[in-house]
């Protein structure tokens, strides 16, 4: 999938589609598009905010489909957010009591970094070969050939 096809797929065809699978190329081309648009238009206060909000849903959708392609649930996308929330809930009472939670913050930071690296590795992996729980292999649009001839 090339750059323009990935953008068209994410913005026109599958804007709110959290089902199915997304190839690596679809995900990374849209990631690059999203990054470049945010970099260029992020300096314009209102327009940049509106564009960023407009790209948020298709960005999440293609990320969930990318996780599906690797055989994982899209809920993994919330893992860094979960670590941040749990970390805040744990450290808030310590900070409120006047103590310094530096070691605890380091552990939470390492957990956040570890989960983020894990997600990055999954985004870079080739998807599962053949159909999985989220649909047919996007590299084999004809479907499961073995099932046809068995």
Q: What does it look like?
A:
With 150 residues, this protein is mainly alpha-helical. It is 67% helix and 0% strand. It is built from 6 helices and no strands. Helix 4 packs antiparallel against helix 5 (102-124). The two termini are 31 Å apart. Mean pLDDT is 89; it is low at 144-150.
The termini sit apart by 31 Å
Q: How many individual β-strands?
A: 0
Give the helix tally. 6
Into which percent range does the helicity of residues fall? 55-70%
Indicate the overall shape.
globular
Mean pLDDT: 89
Oligomer: single chain
Instruction: Give me the secondary-structure category.
Output: mainly alpha
> What is the chain-wise order of helices and strands?
HHHHHH
Strand content: under 5%
Radius of gyration: 19 Å
Reported for the largest beta sheet, the result is: none
Q: Runs with pLDDT <50, length 5+?
A: 144-150
């Amino acid at each position: 999938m090339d750059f323009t096809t990935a953008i068209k797929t994410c913005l026109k065809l599958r804007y709110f589609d959290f089902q199915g699978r997304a190839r690596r190329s679809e995900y990374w081309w849209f990631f690059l598009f999203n990054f470049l648009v945010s970099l260029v238009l992020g300096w314009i206060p209102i327009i940049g905010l509106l564009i960023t909000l407009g790209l948020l849903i298709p960005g999440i959708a293609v990320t969930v489909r990318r996780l599906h392609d690797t055989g994982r649930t899209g809920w993994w996308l919330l893992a860094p957010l979960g670590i941040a929330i749990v970390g805040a809930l744990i450290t808030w009472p310590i900070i409120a009591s006047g103590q310094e939670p530096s070691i605890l913050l380091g552990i939470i930071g390492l957990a956040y970094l570890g989960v983020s690296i894990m997600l990055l590795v999954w985004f870079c992996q080739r998807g599962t070969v053949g159909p999985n729980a989220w649909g047919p292999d996007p590299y084999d649009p004809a479907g499961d050939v073995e099932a046809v001839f068995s």
